[in-house]
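Workshop exercise sheet. Pairs work together: one partner reads the sequence aloud, the other fills in the structure field after running the prediction. Swap roles for the next sheet.
Pair: D.N. / O.F.
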Amino acid sequence: MMPPEIAAWRQGQRKRLLELRRSLPLPERAALIEPLLGNLRTVLERLELGTLGIYWPIQREVDVRPLADEICDRRGAALALPVVVRKGAPLEYWQWRMGDSIERGFWNIPVPRQRHPVEPDAVVAPLVGFWDHYRLGYGGGYFDRTLAAARKRPYAIGLGFELSRLDGFVPQPHDIPMDVIVTDASIHERPRGGGADAGHC
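Structure field:
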């Protein structure tokens, strides 16, 4: 169980950052999205990809679908979307491409209509906030649970705005660090040894 003071701090930060993201003026948001997607392209272009897991954007998350579809189409790689198959269980990734049929899944988030589970080589996960290489999500724990349960751990990419950087984040045993955090300002890659010190590339 997470200590109550840490849980309360995370909930407060989550609420603050989601409101900050919602209230970001459209011109300012557009000015941040361009370099963010440019940094994401840099990361994706250097990876060996058979399948890339992405996400369907909600709550004003950055839409990575067109970029990911373009890169995967050019390189002959597959795309996949995360699916909640059972509450509290790890996510499944189902193969999907732009234009494929979708339906509403848990919390009305669109998912592929056809179940074709795959194991992505890399996954892009939106973040609400971040510290070092740790991602603050929406609080359900699904993404950490999925990484922990993966037979072959995918390269984990956390994606969000630099304004979501946090101070005071205390990692818990269930928190799994991302391999890289990509923002509009930086590509913050975790050292290959998995140490605490971070590097920029």
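Discussion prompt: The chain has one domain: 4-200. What would you look at next?
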